[in-house]
Amino acid sequence: MTTEHSHPHPRVRRGGPDDPTVDRSDPGPKVAEHHRAGTALARIPYPIEVRTLEVLARTWINPRMVRLTLGGPGLDGFHTHQADDHVKLVFPDPDGTLRPPVPAPGGMLTWPRPSPLSRVYTVRRYDAAARELDLDFVVHEGGHASGWAVSVPLGERITVAGPPGAKSFPHTYDHYLFAVDATALPALARWLEESPQDVSAQVVLETDEECEHAYPLAERPGVEVIRLTRAGGPSRLAGTVRGLPARPGRSFLFAAGESGDIKPLRAWSQDRCDALFTGYWKRGVAGLED
């Protein structure tokens, strides 16, 4: 998740990431076991923490995406075990007042009201030994977080909350399909690095501009990447996925990006494959929550 995604604090769903009654202890082994032997999508909650990190480095991945490396002692104890895990960046109010969430019982956070300005981003990389966390930002006009990522001085501090837990899909499927745009590149890239060496997958990646295909992805012998560029035209993402020949065995679809572009795949995937859909953003809508 690399675009502006305002995330109000929704109603509590029993068993969901905001349920204070679920067991959040020691999630790493639980996710690893589900990857090894699970048979379907599972929600595995983490203890949700808030921490203050320092901006250590800024790296341009391509002309439309910038990476910030955050770090420091505040990263100790950080949990991330699934490729599309996300954190919230919490920004000060317009008058400069910072109103971060505070720890609550059950490994939860209590958020102030009204909610502070926050944005959600995918964890691209976490290095516990180096105390480093990488987040990638799609740069676009008018985006609060993307503007901050481009201009924030190195050494400045930022409040980070989460991740709240994993939507874990196992490594036991025979084949994987990815229908993604540029905002899902961090999750895709991390999954390619962490999945089994003999994985079979097809990736349909659609970007707004050709330069966005310069994002580095690990090359795997069993993975085919189909690259599309909108260049101002209509999306071909869903149509291209639907046109792929069926593979034998059990398949899993990971669809993430612009909400309207991936929506046609919801009906298509029913009775065809297991799936996880995440609408990271929607054209013309600020602060989408999918």
For CATH, the homologous superfamily of the largest domain is named as Translation factors
| Secondary structure category | alpha/beta
Mean pLDDT: 92
Rg, alpha carbons: 18 Å
Terminal Cα separation, in Å? 12 Å
Total beta strands: 15
Beta-strand residue percentage: 25-35%
Helix and strand string, N-terminal first?
HEEEEEEEEHEEEHEEHEHHE
Q: Which CATH first-tier class of the largest domain would you pick?
A: Mainly Beta
Total number of distinct structural domains: 2
Q: What is the number of helices?
A: 6
Strand order of the largest sheet: 2-3-8-7-4-9
CATH architecture of the largest domain: Beta Barrel
CATH topology of the largest domain: Elongation Factor Tu (Ef-tu), domain 3
How is the biggest beta sheet arranged?
A: 6 strands, antiparallel, barrel
Kindly state the percentage of residues in helix. 10-25%
Written account of the structure:
The protein has 290 residues and is of the alpha/beta class. The protein has two domains: 121 residues, Translation factors (Elongation Factor Tu (Ef-tu), domain 3), CATH 2.40.30; 112 residues, Nucleotide-binding domain of ferredoxin-NADP reductase (FNR) module (Rossmann fold). Helices cover 16% and strands 34% of the residues. The chain is built from six helices and 15 strands. The strands form four sheets. A six-stranded antiparallel barrel has the order 2-3-8-7-4-9. The longest helix has 11 residues. It is globular, with a radius of gyration of 18 Å. About 4% of the residues have low confidence. It holds the Pfam family FAD_binding_9. It comes from Streptomyces albidoflavus.
